[in-house]
TrEMBL record:
Belongs to the FAD-dependent glycerol-3-phosphate dehydrogenase family. This is Glycerol-3-phosphate dehydrogenase. The keyword rRNA-binding does not apply. Residues 7-394 form the FAD dependent oxidoreductase domain. Coiled coil: none annotated. It comes from the Bacteria.
Amino acid sequence: MTETPIDVLILGAGINGAGLFRDLCEQGLTCVIADKGDYGSGTSAAPSRLIHGGIKYLETGEFRLVAQSTLERNLLLRNAPHCVHPLPTVIPIFSWFKGIGAALRTLMGSTTAPRARGAVLMKIGLALYDFYGARARVMPRHALWGRARALAEIPPLTPRIVAAGRYYDATVAHPERLVLELMQDGLRASPASRAFNHCALLGAEGATVRLRAVDGTELALRPRVVINAAGPWIDAVNARLGLQTRLIGGTKGSHILLDHPALLAALKGRMIYFEADDGRICLVFDYLGRALVGSTDTRADDPDGVRCEDGEIDYFLQSLRSLLPGLAFDRSQIVYAYSGIRPLPASDGTAAGLISRDHSAPVIEPSDARDWPVISLVGGKWTTFRGFAEEVADTVLSRLGRARRVSTRDLPIGGGRDYPADPAVWAAEAGGAPGRAATLLARYGTTARAILQAEGTAPTSLEDAPDYTLEELGWLSRNEQVQGLEDLVMRRTALAVTGRLSMRDLDRIAGLLAEVLNWDAPRREAELAQVRARLTGRHHMRL
């Protein structure tokens, strides 16, 4: 087997791996990135869909992390306007002075979180948040509402509140697509680089790392640096490389999505970020026409079997009933549920919610049995992926004796490239059926132009999700490394997560993929059975 020399091998194609791949490719390095599943299919597919500065990190004194996070949030609003959007956020407040002492203890290192945060404490926190978010500011500052104003703005809110804070963060509409677009940007910048999904890591020996691609082809790579970006699987990947580590001590975050028009009408595009009755932080906001509710934060260590459990669902529903007694909540409203393991640093004895979301990149130097260093990407959060990638890329460049030639700070991502100042004008010029160009621009950014051309003048809509077309899905299947039915319905599109996927549409999409990917009848049926079982079993869908 011929060995291929490369500069960097990245194992794991979640948001951290993809962000680093793009950065290194922009510097002219030859990189290979590989994931055992699809791009962005692990922890990166299970976030709260927020791009945020981390207001709660102020309590733990992580001011540098808040400063970095608010800057990166502001940059993403500019660089990925098709995926990242401002999100006005309301915090209900239930007292005036509670929590000050507990917050001070937490700030000084206590391992228990405050159980209440009064208006005085929230006012200080929101002012600090505005201060740290001043760099590259794109959104308004905070406001403090009195009880009457808060209840007038959101009538179903519990009358137990005494005030409410309003500030701005952001949401990412299609996180899995943003991961994919970072990969595509890297390949565009460095044509000699390669990206593999559904790829197995076979092992390593001496100078060589062996992989098996989805088509069965075996690859022998000779990297100068290996990056372990496998998230909660980091220790398992290091073991496959012959290294024994204990770097990860993850926590589980679960979410549910509700079909609840009355709740969405009350939210009016805002998120409510609130304390549940036990003091834990929860959230609810309008995500692509569904009410997204999250998140739990409990110790867990099985990323392959993680799912949203019945007890977590009960917790969410009861928290909503307590917060919004003017509305009804029950299990029949759930259209989708998901869960993931946060790849946080191993941290025994600390409350799950207080484990730092900061990042680190420990290095295992080469040895007699291994010619390359292994850099593991530990921790971090969705919002800070670009800054984390920049730090690690600079380390890699230094080790390889190369200089940085491109900054990613102001670099558009994927469909954010050449994004129009006036989307309505762009949509009118792009053609297509009335409103169709605007729909696709919001979904794919400027990549929408190619999809519009593929659709032609008479596209064929899905039966139960008519804003998606077979021509659109066919274009995605041919151009975005779709390997299976799950890739298409769960990550290239929002059909599954919004609960709008029906059995008849799933069957039709499977037929389309069978044509594009040349599947025989048994493979088509196997794909259908696998996806149906996953969606109904792990994600609580009713197909």
